[in-house]
Design goal:
Blueprint (H helix, E strand, L loop, with lengths): L1 E5 L11 E5 L9 E10 L2 H9 L14 E8 L11 E4 L12 E5 L3 E3 L6 H5 L2 H14 L10 E5 L4 H12 L4 E5 L3 H10 L3 E3 L5 H7 L5 E6 L3 H11 E9 L18 E4 L4 H5 L6 H14 L7 E5 L4 H12 L6 E5 L5
Helix pairs in contact: 3-4, 3-9
The structure holds NADP nicotinamide-adenine-dinucleotide phosphate.
């Protein structure tokens, strides 16, 4: 099979940074599925792993942790899927990624693809949906009882924000205040169901006050934790909860939360597969629930740009766009070139 790999230690514009290379198609053991990958999506984790890989890689490192495809064969202990099933998944950071025509993935972190979506529409969803779902319902433990409480989504138009706005509104019944800084990202957030949009480059607590929110019950930090955490800590209600998905560069002052008995939580969507936690099947279940929400038209896919085919040139362009930090929704690549 002809996978795309990163050769290591090279800048993105080096013509040899990404290469297409021949690899043997693996066969599944245990609870693994062998999936024929039909569409992939790119995420900031791809560019972060690429940047951290300073040593030459031989064989090249297969990046990519978002895919939709068809099951080809299953390991002897697999019980959730059979050959021919359409699936979508993010995979695990400590295994080869999805920038490959065939990939092995543990069935416990795989969902049945939404029936109403194409492969490319489905590939946009897994990584960001797992992140947003776990942040809302596993880390912050927000009840799905339409409480009418408020949530601030810092970074609303990005990949994770685009699905989090929908889940917060449609599943948790929260009042959603998203942040965006440009007319097109503001419109994107409103179209996804944000009740209000404020600008993350301006004073957040002041803007919240102006639209009638003295405090907010929950906050999700999807960008620049160092800058956004103090604003979230100031705006959070007594006993409120904050969750960040982005690593901080300098230490965060937890003292800001003390008098309000507010709490801070981390979400890392690779925790379950990386440590093979006993509850890793939760990702299978939540992806199936995402598919149900899509098929009942409760939420919609977040794909905004589709590139074809899946080759070195398009992958480089996708990384370049992501690195500019202004992506709206998701970028997807589909169709392997015919050889
Ligand atoms: N922990 C995890 O499991 C996990 C999972 C997924 C992603 N992540 C991390 O989460 C981050 C976001 O991922 P993503 O896929 O959503 O990224 P993305 O799609 O690249 O995010 C782009 C968006 O960020 C917004 N933005 C730029 N500067 C901002 C700021 N200072 N404050 C708030 N928003 C800002 C932009 O909005 P405007 O153009 O309107 O400014 C843009 O729409 C990345 O660092 C990624 O590595 C972590």
């Amino acid at each position: 099979m002809n996978a795309i790999g990163y050769t290591g230690g090279k800048p993105l514009n080096d013509p040899d940074a990404f290469v297409q290379f021949e690899q043997e198609t693996p066969s599944p053991s245990g609870r693994d599925l062998l999936v024929e990958v039909r569409a992939i999506s790119v995420n900031p984790v791809d560019t972060k792993v690429r940047e951290k890989t300073s040593e030459p890689q031989n064989p090249p490192l297969i990046l990519g942790w978002d895919a939709a495809g068809k099951v080809i064969s299953v390991g002897p202990e697999a019980e959730l899927f059979k050959p021919g099933d359409k699936v979508f998944y993010a995979g695990s950071i400590n295994r080869p990624g999805s920038n490959s025509p065939f990939q092995l993935v543990d069935e416990r972190i795989v969902g049945s693809m939404p029936k109403t979506l194409s492969f490319e529409e489905a590939a946009a969803l897994p990584l960001t949906s797992i992140t947003a779902w776990e942040a809302l319902f596993d880390r912050l433990r927000i009840p799905k009882n339409k409480s009418g409480k408020s949530i601030l989504v810092l970074g609303g138009a990005g990949g994770v924000g685009s699905i989090a706005i929908q889940l917060a509104n449609k599943v948790a019944g929260l009042k959603v205040i998203a942040t965006a800084s440009r007319p097109e990202t503001k419109k994107w957030c409103h179209d996804l169901g944000a009740h209000h949009v404020v600008n993350h480059h301006e004073n957040i607590p002041n803007q919240l006050n102006e639209i009638g929110f003295e405090t907010i019950d929950y906050a999700l930090i999807f960008n620049d934790t160092d800058k956004n955490y103090p604003s979230a800590a100031e705006a959070i209600a007594p006993q409120g909860k904050i969750c960040s998905i982005v690593e901080n560069q300098s230490s965060l002052d937890m003292g800001l939360l003390k008098s309000k008995s507010a709490s801070f939580h981390w979400e890392f969507m690779f925790t379950r597969p990386m440590f093979k936690t006993p509850d890793m099947i939760e990702q299978h279940l939540l992806l199936n629930e995402i598919a149900r929400l899509i098929d009942t038209k409760t939420i919609k896919t977040t794909v905004n740009q589709i590139m074809s085919p899946i080759n070195v040139e398009n992958l480089r362009k996708a990384h370049d766009t992501l690195e500019k930090g202004r992506t709206i929704g998701k970028i997807v690549l589909k169709d392997w070139p015919s050889t």
